[in-house]
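Newbie here. two chains, one complex. Structure please?
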Amino acid sequence: MLQPILKVDLTTRQVENFFPPNEWISEYLGGASLAARILFDFLSKDLDPLEARSPLLFLNGPLTGSAGPAVGRFAVCGKSPATGLWAESNCGGFWGPELRKAGFDGVWVTGRAVSPVWLWIRDGKAEIRQADHLWGQDTYQVQASIQGELSEKNVRVASIGIGGESQIPFSLILCDHGRVAGRTGMGAVMGSKNLKAIAVKGSGEIPLIDWEAYRPIRSRANRELRAHNQSQVMRALGTAGGADYFDYIGTMPKKYFQSGVFEGAEKVSGSSFAETILSGVSACHACVIACGRVVTLADGKRRKGPEYETIAGFGPNLLIDEAAEITHLGELCDRYGLDSISMSNTIGLAYKMYEEGWITPADTGGLALVWGDAEAAKTCVEWTARRSSFGRLLAMGAKGLAAHFGQVEAAVQVNGLELAYHDPRGASGMALVYATSPRGGCHNQSDYFLVDMGHCEDDLGIRFFERQEGSVKAANVARHQDWRTVGNALVLCQLANVPPKDVLALVNAASGLRWSLEDLLRSGERGWNLKRVINVRLGLNRKSDRLPPALLRPLPDGGAAGYVPDLDGMLQAYYQARGWDQATGMPEKRKLAELGLAWVLVR
Amino acid sequence: MDHPFPSAAWLAAFQEKLNQDQQYHEIAHNWEGDILFSIQADDSLEESTIMYLDLWHGTCRQARILEDGDIPKAAFELQAPYSNWVRILKGDLHPMQAMLTQKLKVKGNMTYMMRHVPTVLDFTRCAQEISQF
């Protein structure tokens, strides 16, 4: 049961309600899948993601704000300035539920304001306000400024930092206690529209079709989720709870994906943070897991602690083993509004290029880039956010930086998006995930590394294959991607280990559907294929499904030593399982028709 | 090597294995913590059984099957139906898979547990090597 989407044209300052057709909602549910359907006709190859007509769509799912198991999330979608392809990123906190209480389930922004503005949404109404005084503020400052200006309690603010203002292609959108839509550069699109922030406040009820049926399922699902082994690990150690194990089996990258061993790794795992600087936990809306970290450093100030990707990226990836330094680097990224995965990857590449002699102090503004040097990394972040000195090159991201110096294959990225920190040499399923993800080198379209460690789902037919097996697991990967696409439509947190039958029951009660698990999976498959078609229209082809050379070289040591995934063989099996053409990588007509997507062929 | 699981004889053989296995001794040299193994009755086991193992720096100082009312407080409790334990001991179910899919429930200090995954895995290897089904 989706409420209207608030459509805002910042050029004309016109505001109207948009109601997606009911059949779209029942075919795509919400979140990223529904966003793909809504934006299908507005994304073209010639569209510059940073031009005024480029769309930016914030969208809830049918469960957002319902206090179900880790469902307080929203998606942000459009065309990525980092990849030129489909962009989506989802985010927790409280912003999505608040938007829903305000009577909207989405905000669709187009156009460009002549000067900085922010958008104020309050119980069915919207107002565009001037933001000149907010421009230049960091993501936490702007929240405080707007909350102070409004003098209302519990106003939720999603904003960009100076990274988004200067349209750095990997800039993020942040809300609440440091929850971010980090990947694919949606902060840059927001900045290109001169839109500093969107503040929301609502007092309405969360609309569900059948609350009576929903409540007992929700209670059971939350109880079970809270008791789950993995939730206990996440609550105690955060998302880096698995870091010790990832290190042990060789899935946690070190030294920009070049080394399998880092002596300091045990000093920067979730366990280590818990034993040293952890002083509390934080949770998104109604979440029973509470994976968010609160840490206290030497200055005595309580602040957000880093999650796994930030720890891995600024820790073992740069050979930094000091928890406080990693925390500061993560906070810099959050405040400036930069995605910590892309930023730490790009810095890792710079360190490698410096070590190789491909760049020198003459290129880096005199800055020595030495593995393990946290101060140099901080300077890199500062310079990137301000596009100053060497930061002008870092701001292009890993692919751009490498290409600038004629070393494009040195960048560990897929289709322009820097890789998340789950090495496919330790968990081979990630080879397919990265190569085929609709948004590039990302782990949030399928966290298959967990399946490779044993997290299968019997009810969905998602089986366990050995971590370093090849094409035999291709169909399994596809099925897992479909399931995660359902999650990204709902919008469900990936940490929510809710039995699929309970997810189904929640969706049916919330939406008035009478679906089976297969129907739900089919909706995920439909969303996955629609995003594929969008990307093909944007220029993606069979050759785009690849891994960077660094990941096709065996590691010399560590838990994944000596193994490289057979990507070609896996892709062949994957296309077959997907019903995609082996030569073009495009979904075959038969598959499109089966999924109710035949209409894309005439567009 | 043909002691039925779970039984006092199996537990004695397991304790002996843990105390004699050099690899386990090295990997588990930092481990300090006792564990309750709760083997729950199911279609293949009539009565639930709880085993207690006191593990200390790569050795097993004590191992016994607990009687009703004699349940000490332990650092960890691992709980699963009998058939899941059998699958783990036969090597058909990886212990990490069992934990991730709730086929094996874990209570205790998760920080410590995640710090010592190699110990847990080698402990499992020792159990597998003395088990026959």
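Moderator note: Chain B touches chain A at residues 94, 96-102, 104-106, 109-112, 114-115, 117-118 (CB under 8 Å). The mean pLDDT of chain B is 94. Thread marked as resolved.
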